[in-house]
Design a protein that fits this description.
Order of helices and strands: EEEEEEEEEEEEHEEEEHEEHHHHHHHH
Shape: elongated
Radius of gyration: 24 Å
Largest sheet: 8 strands, mixed
Structural class: alpha/beta
Strand content: 25-35%
Distance between the termini: 84 Å
Protein name: Leucine-rich repeat domain-containing protein
Helix content: 25-40%
Length: 309
């Protein structure tokens, strides 16, 4: 779309790559987006030299955007910005985002978040996962002053609440389903409390199926940011006990990095790897099959026969 400038009440309007910006004195504001906006969208850090700091209410409502990268200087997102963005699955932003309006993700089914931290460990993550009741995987990259980057990945399971009438008592009771509600409470002063998060493994094991709990355990073990030794032992004990379910899931998902991670850390059993091989053989997933066969050769080699004369 060609850029268009208009002078309006001392500020300039500009359309750029399907996004309408209002250029104020010290910042640019996302006002609205064109109907054709879809797929992967990146909002620039600056528009005509002005930092993009705000997104106005309903700016992306009903658009077919699937992946959105927000600017690194964004501070405020207005109410219902992503209202009924049914296609939106992935959102990337930084810890500069401080204010979040009501109903921002109404009608969305986000499944992935990526956050880059430059100013500590505070973010608006809690407000987002509180709004999104579905399962959501979060990648957090902590950028240190010495240039090092530490990465954490966690899963917030799906949860929902159900109002059930207790007729004899004439009251309405709230029934909570899934462990996701407990995981969404693991925040203090806008920071994720990893120790509290890790303490909820028994709740996940009791309230979720083996696949969901495996994802929680595997992400914490593969990206052990602030993972205590005691918590690591509990995750490993659970994973070893359920390695057949976990191995089959990650094999069918063709996640070869996790499959090799199982091997390097001694989580595989012969039975588990055989079941994973059978599963991908049926589905004709040849690439991951070759990885599993190599893993089997490496960790469970056939014993050579010895012939005595």
């Amino acid at each position: 779309m060609q850029e268009k400038n208009l002078e309006k009440e001392g500020a300039a309007d500009i359309w750029q790559e399907g996004i309408h910006y209002l250029l104020e004195e010290t910042a640019a504001v996302v006002q609205e987006t064109c109907e054709e906006l879809e797929g992967e969208v990146k909002i620039p850090d600056e528009v005509q030299g002005l930092p993009v700091k705000r997104i106005s209410p309903y700016a992306f409502a009903r658009k077919r955007v699937e992946e959105l990268h927000l600017p690194g200087c964004l501070e405020e997102v207005g109410r219902y910005v992503f209202y009924r963005c049914f296609a939106l699955r992935r959102l990337c932003f930084t810890d500069s985002w401080k204010e979040i309006g009501a109903g921002v993700f109404t009608g969305c089914r986000l499944s992935e978040l990526e956050i880059d931290f430059y100013r500590g460990e505070r973010s608006c993550l809690k407000f987002i996962v509180d709004e999104v009741r579905y399962e959501i995987c979060v990648t957090m990259r902590y950028h240190r002053e010495d240039g090092q980057v530490e990465t954490a990945k966690v899963l917030f399971p799906e949860h929902y609440e159900e109002a059930v009438e207790n007729t004899p008592a004439r009251i309405v009771e709230t029934h909570r389903h899934g462990s996701g509600g407990y995981y969404r409470q693991c925040f203090y002063n806008r920071e994720l409390n990893y120790a509290e998060y890790d303490s909820l493994l028994p709740w996940a094991a009791a309230g979720e199926n083996e696949v969901v709990t495996a994802k929680i355990a595997v992400l914490r073990l593969r990206f052990p940011y602030r993972l205590s030794g005691a918590a690591k032992e509990k995750y490993e004990a659970w994973l070893v006990e359920h390695i057949e379910d976990a191995g089959r899931f990650y094999a069918l998902a063709e996640d070869t990095e996790t499959l090799r991670f199982f091997g390097r850390n001694g989580y595989w059993t012969r039975e588990a790897i055989e079941q994973a091989i059978d599963a991908v053989s049926v589905e004709k997933k040849t690439e991951v099959l070759s990885v599993l066969l190599e893993e089997r050769r490496r960790y469970f080699p056939k014993k050579k026969k010895i012939f005595e004369l």
